[in-house]
Amino acid sequence: MTALSTSPGTRRTPRGPRRTAPRLHRRWDWVGLLYILPALVFFSVFVLYPLCQSVWLSLWEWDGVTAATWVGPQNYIDVLTEPDSRKALINSFVFIVFYAVLPAAIGLMFTGIMARIRIHGLTFFRTALFVPQILSGVVVAVAWRYMYAIDGPLNALLGQVGLGWLATAWLGEFGTALPAVGSIGTWVMFGLCMVLFLAGAQRIPAELYEAARIDGAGPIREFFTVTLPGLRREISFALVLTTTYALRNFDVVWNTTQGGPGDTTIMPSVIIYKAAFNTRDYGTAATLSVLLAALVLVVTGLVLFLFRDKEPRR
Amino acid sequence: MRSRRESVISHLILVIGAVIAVYPALYILVLSLSEPSGRPSALGVPRSFTLDNFAKAWTDGGFEAALMSSAFVAICVVLVTVTLSVLAGYALAWLRVPFGGAILGVLLIGLVLPYEGIIVPLQAMIEDFGLVNTSWALILPQIGLSVSLGIFWMSTYFRGLPRSLPEAASIDGATRLQTLTRVLLPAALPAVMALALIVFLYTWNDFLLALVLVPDNPDVQTAPLSLSFFAGNRKMADSGATAAAAVLVALPLVAMYLVLQRSFINGLLNGALKE
């Protein structure tokens, strides 16, 4: 497939029906590959190759010292049947609710209220709402350990409003640890969703709202017929970002609960770390790595598919 | 009036949202500036003022070395990633590179792949290279993990530039590299800046790679890792010093963010949206 190529329109790009970029030359530009090569070397050596190795390792039982034993799919069966790794996978889905669904719902609800309002001081609000995105997960975890502490602000606030009997060590109790850690994710992500959706809503043409109102649409129908479809791309981007963050979460969980108390907040990433670097059970670690990567790819693909542009672009 | 009421409610929601988003960060700032005996009130009002906590964190936690190490790693990763991404993004956007579509497809994996998916073999590889507990153990993989974002970023931006730019240059007989450096790169400077900021942010804030790849060398431990160890060892015993340490780790980025917030937000939001 060298020399003269077919017309550019018949080339498929991995990103759907969008037209390929304008090109300068008609022939394949082999020298152009040299521009990509350095980046591709880094990517292959430090991402693709280890990824393939993860898949390969997941088919063996290995402690890093003695000879490895071929076990085929056994690691996968074990991971899916053992209680702690199953718990971790279930927790991942709980985290998707806290990290992705809740922030997106909060963002959408408030955007619906604000869609047609001229917002004063938008720059200020954007800056403030975005602060959680700037902080390292470790800083976030440390800050929230104080928020949730038994003598911390959350319990004090509950006391102020007469709900003092609810006060507890949120991260230390079996019943509250998972929602407490999950809520940290909601906090990290809700501002991003609000800023993203508000910006998107400002781009929806005002005529669409007027047309809806002439048709006699109330605020709720207006939200579902104008605002929501107009934000499809923003919603899809927000969900990809937030679900990926939810599934791979390590730093926040590790620095608040380390998976405890018991296994209430255990996550696949925590098991991977402990299996690989504490108990030296490489097979299990690699198996969960592969499952986690697959889960991220599947969920991302699903979101992109569900929220794809139905009409051709531009 | 309906719209006036809506406007008041909207701004009220925004104020509450902003307060919730900023409050935990402000609380540790106040805590870090408070004397142990004069804790802030539960709602965050300071009752005393001291810088002792920072002095304690700085000397006990080794944050001087940690911040320097983080800065070195992040700057190296940014410089290399941006350079490689500009080159590759240009080629994929403007040159008829064979397998261009397939290359972009493979790079797509890198956009969403969690570090956890590769951390076990990656650690073994870095150990084979003899690089564990050196800065290179972080720099090299971070470049590999950042270039896919960078390439998508730059190629999307280059594609959006008017065709006339490189065409005019090629008529003038400019080579590919001249076209890139003299014509396209100046036009893409805002995108390059935004990419640099975001890669800096991700590299600076990384925790897992640092925990696995430089666990035992205080001289190259990054700031978030030092904070994790510092906060873990003290078990909340000295909350003022721990809070001060957290402020130290966050401060460089927050300062950059306050100055360059438009680039940061546009970068984090728009870049990927264009895809």
UniProtKB/TrEMBL annotation, chain A:
UniProt KW Lipid metabolism keyword: no
Residue stretches making up the ABC transmembrane type-1 domain: 89-303
Pfam families xref list: BPD_transp_1
Localization (cell): Cell membrane
Entry keyword set: Cell membrane, Membrane, Transmembrane, Transmembrane helix, Transport
Signal peptide range: none
Coiled coil: none
A single cellular component GO annotation: plasma membrane
Membrane topology recorded in Swiss-Prot or TrEMBL: Multi-pass membrane protein
The organism's place on the tree of life at top rank: Bacteria
InterPro entries xrefs: ABC_transporter_permease, MetI-like, MetI-like_sf
Location of the region described as Disordered in the Swiss-Prot/TrEMBL record: 1-20
Main location group: membrane
Keyword Coiled coil: no
CDD domains with a match to the protein in the record: TM_PBP2
Transmembrane intervals: 28-51, 93-115, 127-147, 153-171, 178-199, 285-307
Bias type Low complexity, positions: 1-11
Family: Belongs to the binding-protein-dependent transport system permease family.
Annotated protein name in UniProt: Raffinose/stachyose/melibiose transport system permease protein
Automatic annotation (TrEMBL), chain B:
Residue ranges of domain ABC transmembrane type-1 in the record: 67-260
Places the protein is found: Cell membrane
Residues that span the membrane, as ranges: 12-33, 71-95, 102-124, 136-154, 183-204, 240-260
Membrane topology label: Multi-pass membrane protein
One term under GO cellular component: plasma membrane
InterPro entries: MetI-like (IPR000515), MetI-like_sf (IPR035906)
Subcellular location, principal: membrane
SUPFAM superfamilies, per database record: MetI-like
Keywords: Cell membrane, Membrane, Transmembrane, Transmembrane helix, Transport
Family stated for the protein in its record: Belongs to the binding-protein-dependent transport system permease family.
The protein's name: Carbohydrate ABC transporter membrane protein 2 (CUT1 family)
